[in-house]
Amino acid sequence: MSNIACALTIAGTDPSGGAGIQADLKTFQELKCYGMSIITSVVAQNTTGVQSVHHIPLQMIDDQIDAVFSDIPVGAFKTGMIATVDMMQLIAEKISNNPAPYVMDPVMVATSGDSLIAENARQFLRDHLLPLTALVTPNIPEAEFLTNVKIQTLEDMQTAAELLVHHYHAGAALVKGGHLSGEAVDFLYDGKEMHRFASERIATKNTHGTGCTYSAAITGYLSQGFSLMDAVKQAKYFVTQAIRHSFDIGHGAGPTNHWAIREEVFNNE
Ligand SMILES: Nc1ncnc2c1ncn2[C@@H]1O[C@H](COP(=O)(O)OP(=O)(O)O)[C@@H](O)[C@H]1O
Ligand SMILES: Cc1ncc(COP(=O)(O)O)c(N)n1
């Protein structure tokens, strides 16, 4: 199978398996992509929150990126948690010559409320990494920070998506509405048109890692050659099913179910 789609994630870890690198690799696997990962920080966390963080030395991040880029053609890649300005600077340099589509999940705060990146890194992310993206996938608080727009309505989400592309130079923007109420509505703006992706809101507290899973699914589909619009459409379906069949495990916000689009799960619905 030499023509397998290769998808890469550059992110932090979650030993409890619901978010970060672990969620990304599980998602790639479900989509039948060949999954690869570069670890930026090792995070001691679980469904209740973050206990401690160890940043991987810059040289080691550099070496990991070289190990992958020098050997295997990457079909698409994503970034999740990048904790410091130094890491961002290095990653920006490394990826700027890679032609594969880049999906940025602008991770700032975990579902538990714990901050995952340095205060000054947020601005650096917006000013230096955002212009390199094919797509950025902020949730409401992240979109608010990136654009300075207070987001309370579906119209505000669309305004933020347009600003991310036209003012902050993202390739495209997917503003996710998980943090509003009512239907779970996301808006994709590709620089020309606004697309709406909606699903029913599922009553669950188990949303640990939804953003990671969603952006990994988009990356996986892009690595397989789907258009941006189709990749988001398929990924929205994937994440909705993953939330619908999420696991009530752990003492906090449980993880999503990465194998929820398998046929046997549907057959048992
Ligand atoms: N309770 C829910 N029911 C259905 N879809 C949801 C629910 N919560 C979030 N989503 C969807 O999950 C995806 C992740 O969204 P969001 O929660 O906004 O991001 P993040 O996990 O980065 O905070 C989006 O497609 C959003 O619409
Ligand atoms: C290493 C890492 N990266 C990202 C998240 C965000 O998770 P969520 O998708 O729940 O916002 C996390 N909790 N840990």
Automatic annotation (TrEMBL):
Catalyses which reaction(s): 4-amino-2-methyl-5-(phosphooxymethyl)pyrimidine + ATP = 4-amino-2-methyl-5-(diphosphooxymethyl)pyrimidine + ADP; 4-amino-5-hydroxymethyl-2-methylpyrimidine + ATP = 4-amino-2-methyl-5-(phosphooxymethyl)pyrimidine + ADP + H(+)
EC number: 2.7.1.49, 2.7.4.7
Record keywords, A-Z: Kinase, Thiamine biosynthesis, Transferase
Keyword Transferase: yes
Gene3D superfamilies reported for this sequence: 3.40.1190.20
TM spans (from-to): none
Listed pathway(s): Cofactor biosynthesis; thiamine diphosphate biosynthesis; 4-amino-2-methyl-5-diphosphomethylpyrimidine from 5-amino-1-(5-phospho-D-ribosyl)imidazole: step 3/3; Cofactor biosynthesis; thiamine diphosphate biosynthesis; 4-amino-2-methyl-5-diphosphomethylpyrimidine from 5-amino-1-(5-phospho-D-ribosyl)imidazole: step 2/3
Family to which the UniProt record says this protein belongs: Belongs to the ThiD family.
Name of the protein in its database record: Hydroxymethylpyrimidine/phosphomethylpyrimidine kinase
Species: Tigheibacillus jepli
Gene field: thiD
